[in-house]
Design a protein that fits this description.
- The structure is a single chain.
- With 481 residues, this protein is mainly alpha-helical.
- The chain has one domain: Amino acid/polyamine transporter I.
- Strand 2 and strand 3 form a beta hairpin.
- The relative contact order is 0.22.
Length: 481
């Protein structure tokens, strides 16, 4: 039986989240979740595949449009089913509990937790530029656990401290969490916009680079370029994870997803214009090393290394903060369905946040930091982000056909063409990843498959049916402030 999004069953207060986020708050989560380190090395790869400025810019815009198509499909799904969890909810309703569990399992084991661990280690490295001891990886203590020795170092402690501080902030409630997230997102976007503006107005680049082709481009080159570009755009669906906590979700979830994805597309396009302004496209394709620092050195006669390092720290912190918000909502939703630790379904009685889910993700991320090698889980399962988002968008077709009478506050534009193109693009990306890196991809598939016996073990312990979850479809309104 399919659970109707308009159910009026009374929720247990302990499992109800508050709807306190506005569209700008949710859009800030999208921007911070998407813009990571990829934009500072992917343009070099793309320039090597499409050595023509006009085509290069066009491919980045195409990637943004495909992401927007996916985002608007999520917007329809989230508006009709405004519950925490994102694709976990949509896969569960369209394809059943096992696919839904596997997306949540992958998110916890590697997707969010692995990304947080890797980002925190990177943050510690940049902090080490200002405080050398912070980047010191010399082991202070080794915990000889079987198969997974945990190595404590100053660098690891700094990384774990960053994870812990942001987790505590977001446990404290949507008020302080929203303030910190929005501030970090504003600083991140402002830094990028200023860098582009200063580079194009005061930088010693060449406007001729913007029209000078390095070589001929091919259709296959464009298709290959879309692969890293779409990975660079991943995270556009972040607002869907917090749909239960967005005021008037039928109206504001689509706004947040559209605004966040459009903002990222414009920022990515502007950065690529700046990179080509600094380097001829033929040179950009062969460039090695940090693109942000290299562009700064090419454009400006004065050094910006310390400023770039400081900006990178803020940028990474914004990404960790966004993932600290989004990820736990998946485990919270799983726990309400009986598919995760029972405590993870509890909402803090005072702060009204999924505190146990946030703590669980932070703890596992800290373990990944200390393990070192386990942080590689992210590289093995990176394509799973595209895989599950593609399946989630495909669920739109299933649910539209099956639930014809459900109330849809928002209907995605371009249906069925736009979501179908996104599903096709996602399939191409996954197939390409498996073909180009079979060893890594098979390892990632094995990690995902490891969730199957875990699922059956949980089911054997009496998980409730999907249509009897405790959660309400109508989130508890925010208390008066």
């Amino acid at each position: 039986m399919t659970r109707n999004a308009n159910s009026t069953s009374a929720p247990a207060r302990s499992t109800a989240l508050q709807a306190r986020l506005g569209p700008l708050d949710a859009a800030a989560i999208v921007v911070s979740n998407v813009i990571g380190g990829g934009i500072f090395f992917v343009p070099q790869i793309v320039a090597g595949l499409v050595p023509h400025p006009g085509v290069l810019f066009g491919v980045w815009v195409l990637g943004g449009l495909l992401s927007l198509a996916g985002a608007m499909a999520y917007a329809e799904l989230a508006a009709a089913r405004p519950r925490a969890g994102g694709e976990y909810v949509y896969l569960g309703e369209a394809f059943g509990r096992l696919p839904a569990f596997l997306t949540g399992w992958t998110s916890f084991v590697a997707g969010f937790s692995g990304a947080i661990a890797a980002s925190a280690v990177g943050l510690a490295e940049y902090v080490g530029r200002f405080v050398p001891a912070a980047g010191d990886a010399t082991p202070l203590l080794t915990l000889p656990l079987p198969f997974i020795p945990l190595v404590v170092s100053r660098k690891a402690l700094v990384a774990i401290s960053a994870i812990s501080v942001l987790a505590l902030i977001h446990v404290r409630g949507l008020g302080p969490g929203r303030l910190v997230q929005n501030t970090l997102a504003i600083l991140k976007v402002t830094g990028l916009v200023l860098f582009v503006a200063l580079g194009l107005s005061l930088g010693h680049g060449a406007a001729a680079n913007l029209s000078a082709a390095g070589a001929s481009t091919t259709a296959s080159g464009v298709l290959l370029a879309l692969v890293p570009i779409m990975f660079c755009y991943s995270g556009w669906n972040a607002a869907a994870y917090v749909a239960e906590e967005i005021r008037d979700p039928g109206r504001n979830v689509p706004r947040a997803l559209a605004l966040g994805t459009a903002a990222v597309t414009l920022i990515y396009l502007a950065l690529n214009v700046l990179f080509v302004y600094a380097f001829p496209v033929s040179e950009l394709g062969g460039l090695r090393g940090g693109l942000l620092g290299g562009t700064s050195d090419r454009l400006f006669t004065f050094g910006l290394a310390d400023w770039i390092a400081a900006f990178t720290i803020v940028s990474i912190a914004a990404s960790i903060s966004a993932m600290t918000i989004a990820g736990p909502r998946v485990y919270f939703a799983m726990a309400r369905d009986g598919l995760f630790f029972a405590r993870a379904a509890r909402v803090h009685p005072r702060f009204r946040t999924p505190a146990y889910s946030i703590a669980a993700q932070a703890l596992w991320s800290a373990v990944l930091v200390l393990s070192g090698s386990l942080s590689q889980l992210l590289s093995y399962t990176g394509f799973a982000v595209v895989l599950f988002s593609g399946v989630a968008v495909a669920s739109l077709f299933v649910l539209r056909w099956r639930d014809r009478r459900i109330d849809r506050p928002y209907s995605t534009w371009g249906y069925p063409v736009a979501p179908a193109l996104f599903v096709l693009a996602a399939a191409v990306l996954v197939i390409n990843e498996i073909a180009s890196r079979p060893g890594s991809a098979l390892t990632g598939l094995a990690i995902m498959a490891a969730g199957v016996p875990v699922y059956w073990w949980i089911r054997g312990n009496g998980a409730p049916a999907l249509d009897t979850v405790v959660a309400s479809d109508t989130p508890v309104a925010a208390d008066a402030e």
